[in-house]
Every structure is written in structure tokens, then in C-alpha cells.
Specification:
Length: 262
């Protein structure tokens, strides 16, 4: 069974969702038969390599709120993440472009280390305040995750995997355009019920059992969702049939509304 997840390293909701997905998958009796692939998605493709203001200031400016309101939202999300064992320090996060981080995740996939690097990049950004748009920082994290130093430097020095990253992003946007109904903020797609990124396992179970076509985010209880789905694809929108054995894939949202993530 193949599971594809679209998310950005810089999305805190995606980090929470990743942790919940991992916990649910650990309890899934067929977990050894599940292959997970992390697909590229950029929340802010036009971001500079390293943003010159802190995350709260950027959030306030982008969405027309005060810096105090932005800090309060970060604090609330940090409290939510703590329930899943994550220690977020969003006030320290150093925003920037994630394109090169996604290229390194493609390299990591070729070495069987994609999930390991994804976790390390998210921890570095959301918990340690690392600037993951910085090449020296990316190299250190990638090599620390087990990737060959020479290969990492070659990727960062050139354009390798750039087309693959852009292809993931375009595929995600194409799915969105074909979806019916609103698709932001864990809402509905393909005329199906939706689950937000911090959805409870019970909520996900209720929705996945309600009809053969379903949608949920990676924050859902994957144990129940995957057991009803063949070739599941966790991404932007529902595009296929969720019945066991169906040839098409079910695609579900992996990001919350951009306003919550960026």
C-alpha cells in the first residue's frame, strides 16, 4: 500500500499531522505493508532564502493582525502540539524558502531516508529555530540524517530534483482545480466530508465509515482510514474511490489553510 503526503516543512500543522499519522500507523496491524512518500508543497514559493523578520511579525503583516495576536496563535498551536509530544518554539522560527529542502527530501527518498530527513527538518524549523533556507544549515541537517555529504553538496550546488519538486506542486494544484467544493482549511473536496489537520481519531473514523468516498488529513486516525482504502494518497483533495480494492486512489488534504501554516 502506497501513501503519498503533500506537506511543507515550514507548516506547523503538517508537523502535528505527521506525528499523529506516525502514531496511528504504528498501531496499524499491516504497517509493514505501507510505503509512505513525502511530496513537495510550498506554502510560500516566493519567500527569500532567509526572511529578515521573525515569524510573528511576518504573520501579523501578511494577515492584518497585531504581533501580539500572532504570538497568541503560535502559543495556542504550541499547546496543541504538546499533546502529541512535540515541543514547538514558533517564536524562534526563521522563515524562508523551502524549495531546496524539498530537493534534499527527493535525494533522501533515493537513499531510503526521506521520513528521517523530513522529521529532522521539521524539528529544526519548528523547535530549534533553524534557518532551513540556508544551505549550510541544510547540509548539516541532511548529513546528520545519514545522507552522503558529497551528494548533499552536489544537490545544493545545482538544480537536481528541481523538476521533481515542481512536478509535485503542479500535481497538487491540478487536483485542487478539479475538486468540487471548498478545499481550504480541512474543508470538503469531491463532495465528501472533511477533517481538519488536528482532527481526532473518533472524528476521522466517523467520516471514513460514512460513505465509500471520504476525505481526511494526515491528522486523522490512519489506522482506520487506511484499512478502508487501497493505494491511499494523502494530499490536497479527494480524487478516487475509497473502497477496499478500488483501482483509483483516495487523496486527502495534508495542509491546513495557508493562513494557519505560514
Amino acid at each position: 500500500m502506497n501513501v503519498e503526503i503533500w506537506s511543507d516543512v515550514a507548516c506547523p500543522w503538517c508537523y502535528v499531522g505527521k506525528r499523529r499519522f506516525a502514531a496511528a500507523l504504528a498501531d496499524f496491524e499491516h504497517r509493514d505493508e505501507v510505503d509512505v512518500t513525502w511530496r513537495s508543497f510550498e506554502l510560500d514559493p516566493g519567500a527569500p532564502r532567509i526572511r529578515d523578520v521573525d515569524a510573528a511579525t511576518h504573520l501579523a503583516s501578511r494577515y492584518g493582525m497585531s504581533r501580539e495576536e500572532a504570538l497568541a496563535r503560535q502559543h495556542q498551536l504550541g499547546e496543541l502540539a504538546a499533546r502529541d509530544g512535540l515541543e514547538l518554539h514558533l517564536d524562534r522560527s526563521r522563515g524562508g524558502n523551502t524549495f531546496d529542502a524539498h530537493r534534499l527530501l527527493k535525494l533522501a527518498d533515493a537513499h531510503g531516508l526521506q521520513d528521517t530527513l523530513k522529521e529532522e527538518l521539521m524539528r529544526a524549523y519548528h523547535s530549534a529555530g533553524e534557518a532551513i533556507g540556508d544551505h549550510a544549515t541544510l547540509e548539516r541537517i541532511a548529513v546528520g540524517a545519514g545522507l552522503p555529504a558529497t551528494a548533499v553538496r552536489e544537490v545544493l550546488a545545482g538544480e537536481r530534483f528541481a523538476d521533481e519538486v515542481r512536478g509535485d506542486v503542479l500535481r497538487r494544484r491540478s487536483r485542487h482545480r478539479r475538486a468540487r467544493g471548498p478545499v481550504a482549511g480541512g474543508a470538503r473536496g469531491d463532495a465528501s466530508p472533511g477533517v481538519g489537520g488536528a482532527a481526532s481519531a473518533d472524528r476521522a473514523h466517523d467520516l471514513s465509515a460514512s460513505r465509500p468516498r471520504c476525505t481526511a488529513t494526515i491528522g486523522a486516525d490512519a489506522k482506520r482510514l487506511i484499512s478502508r482504502t487501497s493505494g491511499a494518497t494523502f494530499g490536497p483533495t479527494v480524487v478516487g474511490d475509497g473502497r477496499p480494492g478500488a483501482g483509483e486512489s483516495t487523496q486527502a488534504r495534508s495542509e491546513q489553510a495557508d493562513a494557519r501554516c505560514r
